DNA sequence: ATCGCATCGTGCGTATACACACGATGTGAC
DNA sequence: GTCACATCGTGTGTATACGCACGATGCGAT
């Protein structure tokens, strides 16, 4: 079989490099790479519940909450009670949040370009499709104990 | 233009899915996904300095230190003074660390297989190559700033 | 209506990721 | 030899990532 052992490390290296670079790029604007992802998610679908926001990022609900607390202090997002479900809270971008997001989008264009250039244009769609499939296949089954391929022995 | 906007999010989703799944898989063994990466790196090159270990993972030196403290408590790694450089410390796997790593390797086989299956066999090599190029192109810039040659090795 | 159970947000604990600053040590220029 | 400067590990602070447990609310079956 091919070296499936390199795949995880390559994925990790690429992600961490992107994350580091993004953090550095966004630092002058006072936000982090992950906060940018949150703002971007809200810009594509406003008035989400915290749960739905977390699902789309994707991230953990308790992580999202911590981020929202910080972003609220900066006045970039606001939370309101859900109109029909009093357990939930809806999250949306403030005017300042929308403005900030546009700035961040422009500031990060160079990173997206650089990443994109590492791929042959013809391969881009397929590359993204594979990444998506990897994420889906890992998320799908909630811990398959039915998986006996790990017949382990210690 | 193609949707270069989806590439970062797809990369993020795939990495986080892998990381979550790995953490869950390794939990019964008392180690984390990132600790596994550290152990794997040591298993491929023993007696590294903390700095070199961090560079290879890749990770931050201060992060690596925190991980080493925890792994030392578990008796999986040990640190010694560097033979020629008294500033540095060398890191290596203990016997228990090597044993543990083999267990972890087997336990994670199902994850690697699942990830690999999301790729057409013919595309695997190219896919990994693109990931590597993305990481390199993003890291290169950083090197050109704080620069200092680190010519070769390995 | 009520009860059992799922789902919402919250709070807590642990581990990473990284920046930054610090003291100690190595190294090269003079 | 000295001194300026780079590099090593360490320590601190902030932000994520996630699991787990909790109280409050919603909802379906009875």
Helices and strands in order, then pairings?
Two copies of one chain form a homodimer.
Chain A: H1 6-26, H2 33-44, E1 48-49, H3 50-56, H4 61-73, E2 77-81, E3 89-93, H5 95-107, H6 109-117, H7 124-140
Antiparallel strand pairs in A: 1-3, 2-3
Helix pairs in contact in A: 2-5, 3-4
The structure holds a DNA duplex (30 and 30 nucleotides).
Order of helices and strands of chain A: HHEHHEEHHH
- What's the number of extended β-strand segments of chain A? 3
In whole angstroms, the N-to-C terminal distance of chain A is: 23 Å
Which descriptor suits the 3D outline of chain A?
globular
Strand content of chain A: 5-15%
Structural class of chain A: mainly alpha
Major β-sheet of chain A, in short?
A: 3 strands, antiparallel
Largest inter-chain contact set: A-B, 61 and 59 residues
Distinct helical segment count of chain A = 7
Quaternary assembly: homodimer
